[in-house]
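From the shared-data thread, chain only:
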Amino acid sequence: MKGKILFLAGLGVGYVLGTRAGRERYEQIKAAATNLWNAPVVQKRVDDVQEFVKDKAPEVVEFVADGAKKVAAQVSGRSTAAPAKKPAARSTAAKSSTAKKSSTATKKPATGSAS
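Structure, as tokens:
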């Protein structure tokens, strides 16, 4: 339903902006749009929507604020549900491979000539 309304509104705007019918046709379209907007049925719906928004606004604000806090916590690396975790310690396998690399790098080459 929302998509249809937006499509029709876009169609109307496109026609008004793209028409070459002149000022008279533009005034007719404008008058029809004004009459439609001022119709009691339309204004009743506008009032209903305004009341709905006034009732739901605090809930929406709270929901958005909670979502923003969660996103901010994720970006900064903290979790709102659990305390921050410490980085995992390196495993013994990783330590031993690092030790092998460093000991290999410090070994001196064998002396002797290859010629």
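DSSP finds four helices and no strands in the chain.
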